[in-house]
Specification:
By secondary structure, the chain is α+β, with helices and mostly antiparallel strands. The chain has helices at about 5-20, 25-35, 40-50; strands at about 5, 25, 55-60, 70-75, 80, 80-85, 85-90, 95-100.
Length: about 100
């Protein structure tokens, strides 16, 4: 079951995205090339999504045994005329880990 993310977590994600303190996964980097988007456009879309008070969903990883059960936060911003599925995760020190 997907739930709403906690407000304090959403604000931390907003802060980290605004200051560009995150790193994209290998797959995200490939998606950037395919869809002709930049890391900065994705981070800006995350900030705009949060600023517009749109829902940030919380779910848990299921497929990667190394990260199974860890929280992820889901956004669905629109840019370049397409809806993107954006997932973020934070590492133990409170920085955005796998972003996008």
């Amino acid at each position: 079951m997907v739930a709403q993310a906690e407000p304090e977590v959403v604000q931390k994600i907003r802060e980290l995205a605004a200051t560009q303190r995150c790193r994209p996964t290998r797959r995200a980097k490939q998606d950037f090339i395919v869809y002709d988007v930049t890391r900065y456009e994705v981070l800006e879309a995350i900030c705009k999504w949060i600023d517009a008070d749109k829902p940030v969903r919380k779910d848990f990883t299921k497929h990667d045994p190394r990260h199974h059960g860890k929280p992820i936060y889901i956004f669905k911003p629109i840019f370049h005329g397409k809806v993107f599925w954006v997932e973020t995760a934070m590492n133990a020190i409170g920085r955005l880990g796998n972003c996008y």
